Amino acid sequence: MEDTLSLKDVLGILRRRFWILLVVVFVAVVAAALLSYVILPPVYQADTSLIVNEHQNVAQPADGVDYNQLQTYRSLAVTYVKIITSRAVLQDTINQLKLPETVKQLTGMTAVQVQGETEIIAVSVKDKDASRAALIANTVASSFIKQLPTLVNRVENVSVIDRAVPVTQQVSPRPLLNIAEALLAALVLGVLLAFVVDYFDDTVKTSDDIKKLLGLRVLAVVPDMNAKGARHGRAY
Known about the structure:
53% helix; Alpha-Beta Plaits; 3 domains
């Protein structure tokens, strides 16, 4: 018959191996704190947004909304997302700002996406310097608008809604989140490690261990003379 662990057994293992759990949690939390506060540099994000709409000299329909044209703008916005991260636009940004990054590195710093089912394009740039991130984001947007007539045959009117501004709140690393995740992972790892160590520990420590291993009844126990009260004849 296979042995099964009762709740009492589980709690007993955790109590005996509690030091393992403490060590794992301590190491994980300290490592996460060091990474978040000391080793990893802060990263900031700046956002700018563009909108695709009709030329200013195009007359509005009588009802005020042309849904077919609106759908066209949304389709164009998806295409423009690809153009914004093209080599032509990013290289022009690098040249204007004299950036040390390559096109590949700037691509990794830049994220462009359409905002839901709209014709609005969001451009985000991450950098170790908040002001620099905002400057790059605004330059990418202006470079795209400047080069758009030469990159596509049909050009709709693209304008900036919100210019990027420096944001001093870092987006990564996130110390509290990192520490919380490390703590949770350490608790799980510590519990598993405690059970593994206890499983492979075949030493006999108590009379209960003798009963489980040999099935014999314990007739007497030699008191531990180092235990509290043993020298005064109060150990049983």
